[in-house]
Amino acid sequence: MIKINRKLGILFLFTGLPGTGKTTLANKVIKKISKKFGPTLLINGDDLRNIFNLKNYSSRERKKLDIVYGNLIKFIIKQKINLLFTTISLSNRYVKKNPILKKSIRIHITANYLTRYKFKKNIYKLRKNVPGKNFKTNKVEKAHIFLNNDVSKNISSLEKEFWKKLNDKFIS
């Protein structure tokens, strides 16, 4: 059962490799989350990288982003705004140190290489610094919801699976 702190918004943290469907699923569920839990915002880590011209994709630079992302997330959540945040990962160590992030609902999406390549060809054609291809990403610890997006699923079936798991684990 989700315990909602009325003084804070709820963080829905969507993680997974590029092309797994994090942002697509978040876009699909945002209206219903807004209806159930109140004002909700969706932020994609890739959009933040583009806005602030953060083009270095190395593992070290991604760790620096944890702090930037974490500060932004806390700023929004403290204003009683729910947040759907999509990113490859936030380091487990960073999440553990931050009470607001620790209380998030963590959703991790996996997909096989063909599915990821289909949706993110431009990333997978890069020769270096591709998460999951050239370097490992953080191992997901304590995700509340695991989803697998394979080529046989459409976004509607992934959405149904998300809501079933969210309802089973968190909502009465």
What does this structure look like?
With 172 residues, the chain is an alpha/beta fold. The chain has a single domain, classed as Rossmann fold, CATH 3.40.50.300. The chain contains eight helices and five strands; from the N terminus they run βαβααβααβααβα. Helix 1 crosses helix 8 (155-169). It is globular. The model has no long low-confidence stretch (mean pLDDT 80).
Which SSEs are present, and which pair or pack?
Blueprint (H helix, E strand, L loop, with lengths): L10 E5 L6 H16 L2 E5 H7 L7 H19 L4 E6 L4 H6 L1 H4 L2 E6 L2 H7 L1 H4 L20 E4 L6 H15 L3
Helix pairs in contact: 1-8
What's the gist of this structure?
This protein is an alpha/beta fold and about 170 residues long. The chain is built from 8 helices and 5 strands.
List keywords for this structure.
172 residues, Rossmann fold, five-stranded parallel beta sheet
State the major sheet: 5 strands, parallel
Q: Which superfamily, in CATH terms, is the homologous superfamily?
A: P-loop containing nucleotide triphosphate hydrolases
Beta-strand proportion: 15-25%
Query: What is the strand tally?
Result: 5
- Residue runs with pLDDT of under 50 for 5 or more positions: none
Oligomeric assembly: single chain
Can you tell me the number of structural domains? 1
**CATH first level:** Alpha Beta
The N- to C-terminal Cα distance equals 7 Å
Helical proportion, percent range: 40-55%
Rg computed from alpha carbons, rounded to a whole number of angstroms: 16 Å
Q: What is the N-to-C succession of helices and strands?
A: EHEHHEHHEHHEH
Report the mean per-residue pLDDT as an integer.
80
Shape call: globular
- What's the CATH architecture name? 3-Layer(aba) Sandwich
